[in-house]
Every structure is written in C-alpha cells, then in structure tokens.
Amino acid sequence: MRYQISGKQIDIGEALQTHVKAQIETVVEKYPGRPTDALVVFSRDGSAYACEAVLHLSTGLTVQAKGKEHDIYAAFDATNQKMEKQLRRYKRRLKDHHRDRERPVELLAASSYILAANEDAEAEEPASLQPIIVAEMEARIPSLSVGEAVMQMELAGAPVLVFRNEKQANGINVVYRRDDGNIGWIEPDHRT
C-alpha cells in the first residue's frame, strides 16, 4: 500500500508518520477491499490540529474522514476512528460488493469546474450569462450500481455523487442526500 502523509505549513516527524502507517494497517487488515493507497494531511486550525484522511480501496470505493483535536496524534486517532466506523458499518456490503464484482470499477474521465460566485447582489446585471470559470480540474465518474453509489456517497461523506449506472448503456445518474435525511436518486428517462 502507498502512503502519502504530509502537513500543510507544519512539519510532521518520522514518529507521527510511523504511528499513522501502523494505525491504518491495523484498521484495514480487519476489513475487505484491499486498500491501494492512503492520503493523510495534517494542518493547523486555530489552536487545534486538523487531520484529513482518504483511503482508496481496490474495489474502487473511497473512505474519507476528518478529525480535529488539540493534540496532533489525537487528531489522527479521531480521524482513524471515523474511518474504522465507516468500514465496520459497511463491512458486509464491502464483502458483497467485492464478491459480486468481476472486474474493478470503471472510471470515466470528466471535467470539473469551479465557477465564480456573484457576491454582490446589488451589482449590475452581467453583459453575458456565461459564468466566470475560476478553476478547472479532472474528475472521475465511476461506473456503479445504485446501491454501490449510495454506499460510496456515504463512505465519502459527500452530499452528492454523480455516477454511470451499470444497468444502463451510458446512463449518467445522481444520488444525493435530501434535507429530510433520505437519499434521492435522479435517473434520466432514456425513452425519449
């Protein structure tokens, strides 16, 4: 497994990196999915330390967690506990997902854009309705079943997930968390 452990404007020592690797290995050996790489980033947030971790599994799923504590080790431990809880919660589904899938999750290339927000509501009407693009990034759209998409959204802690529905030829779908706590699913009508 590949590890990328870094700090944003803080120096992290060899002891912390060793601790992070050992703890992640302890967690992932209990659960299926064979992790391929882990990204852990530490930063300062006021007087506390923040830790963000992303764990990529060979099944194509991603586990993400964040933690914040006044001690850097405690911040990682809080993050690690959240990742373990997510993996434990989805252990059976991860096993089923891996057993049923004959090949790895296919990823489609896509572009992702960040558009400038109109902060001044009193400003004049723009001459063009074209938004101003602030940044352009590469995105990946996974090819999943609806159940796998919901599980991936939950594991990532994301409010929305765009995916290609495996049951349809080229069917781009969206699952999202509704305000009432339920999950919404948008499936285009391909009959027209």
Automatic annotation (TrEMBL):
Question: In which domain of life is the source organism classified?
Answer: Bacteria
Record keyword Cell membrane present: no
Keywords, ordered alphabetically: Coiled coil, Cytoplasm, Translation regulation
Parts forming coiled coils: 73-100
User: Which InterPro entries does the entry link to?
Assistant: HPF/YfiA_ribosome-assoc, HPF_long/plastid, RHF-like, RHF/RaiA, Ribosom_S30AE_C, Ribosom_S30AE_C_sf
Principal cellular location given in the protein's record: cytoplasm
Tell me the function of this protein: Required for dimerization of active 70S ribosomes into 100S ribosomes in stationary phase; 100S ribosomes are translationally inactive and sometimes present during exponential growth.
Q: How does it assemble?
A: Interacts with 100S ribosomes.
Family of the protein in this entry: Belongs to the HPF/YfiA ribosome-associated protein family. Long HPF subfamily.
Name the record gives this protein: Ribosome hibernation promoting factor
Please name the gene that encodes this protein. Answer: raiA
